[in-house]
Amino acid sequence: MRALTKLFRRYGILKKWSLFLTLLLIFIFTAACSEDSVKSSEESGETTPASGEVTEGGTIKIGVLASLTGALESYGKQTRNGFELGLEYATDGTMEVAGKKIEVVFEDTETKPEVAVQKATKLLEEDEVDFLVGSSSSGDTLAVLPLAEEYEKIMIVEPAVADSITGSEFNPYIFRTARNSSQDAVAGAAAIAKKGVKIATFAPDYSFGWDGVSAFKAAAEKLGAEIVLEEYADPAATDFTSNLQKVIQAKPDYLFVVWAGANSPWNQIADLKLQDKGIKISTGAPDIPALSIMEPLVGMEGFSVYYHTLPDNKINDWLVDEHKKRFNGEVPDLFTPGGMSAAIAIVEALKKSEGDTDANELIKLMEGMSFETPKGKMTFRPDDHQALQSLYSIKLEKQEGIANPVPVLIRELSPEETEPPILNKK
């Protein structure tokens, strides 16, 4: 009996060892297969994160289109400087977000739509960027918009302002940190339009000018003003005498000017003494180089997109201080904060997505997204992805020790006050 019991005990032990060895072999085989699979993925350049998980590491590439030469060169360089400072501010100097490095590629559109398309295609196909930003010209930007949709990449529009960008030519991959012509118009009309006032407009003969005048006219007429003349000039012209003579003949109370670029009409407006003829001038305060030739317009009331003394917030304080340190004491100009705002918007979106650059997922996160900028809080309106933002009602004054006339704040126009109409067909 004892011998039989001993045999059963021995058989039980053997069964346990057999089970243990079988499990051990399965574990070793599974581990080997897993290791081979990882090696295979590494060799092929692919990654296999768990479902819904975004892996750290890698690079996020941003392609920035700007007019770094040509008529809008100063605008392009302001955007570039602001964008670089914005990335530094938004990432606390690390140039990383969600564990990924940020790389930026700048391309010069030369303010030519066909060049803009070539450069954007190069950024998308050769550089394989995850985002597009730009451009200085509305014409350049409108030419590039379809590429953002074709390649399914988010494009942050800055600083182009044509209403059609977020209106008739809108596609869901477009988000704009720049203000649009309608926002300018509301601010411009608020400064001068009221019942019985006669206004002539003067603008360049392309989308920026057309949209600007159209939006201003609607806003001014809503306030009771009458538009007595819409005058358009060749954007490449240097002599505006014939255009301004038409304005004089129309005898308006105000001439509202929509303009951008180095070849501005301010000198000829002064030479023809429009103000002495009883025609008051109103416009958006331009960048600092253009302000330097606006001394004849001191006392003018209009609006400003940005002047470094107008916003009162910590981000603008940082921008002004850092800009002075890096650019020989120069203050940020008209489009520098826009470049910074575009960079902040991208970083904030990537924080929300945990580094996922899939544009269709980012659209969901960015619609309605608010973020702090040098101009205060901006919000991407879900309907058309236009950033609602503050503008400034100003008066041009001469200040001691400053060469150019200075836009002095009358009052800040809130994002709610400057909210433009929704013009797309979304």
Flag low-confidence runs.
Answer: 1-55
- Please identify the top-level CATH class of the largest domain: Alpha Beta
What is the residue-mean pLDDT, rounded to a whole number? 87
Individual helix count:
12
Strand content: 15-25%
Pfam families: Peripla_BP_6
Organism: Psychrobacillus faecigallinarum
InterPro entries: BCAA_transport (IPR051010), Leu-bd (IPR028081), Peripla_BP_I (IPR028082)
Keywords: Signal
Structural notes for this entry:
The chain has helices spanning 2-44, 73-90, 113-125, 138-151, 181-192, 207-222, 241-250, 266-271, 288-291, 314-326, 336-353, 359-366; strands spanning 59-66, 96-97, 100-108, 131-133, 154-157, 174-176, 198-204, 226-233, 254-257, 280-285, 301-304, 370-373, 376-380, 387-388, 391-397, 406-413. The protein has 426 residues and is an alpha/beta fold. It folds into 2 domains: 59-179 and 309-389, 3-Layer(aba) Sandwich (Rossmann fold), CATH 3.40.50.2300; 182-304, 3-Layer(aba) Sandwich (Rossmann fold). Strands 8-7-9-10-11-15-16 form a 7-stranded mixed beta sheet, with helices on both faces. The protein has a 6-stranded mixed beta sheet with strand order 2-3-1-4-5-6. It has a 3-stranded antiparallel beta sheet with strand order 12-13-14, covered by helices on one side. The termini are far apart. Keywords: Signal.
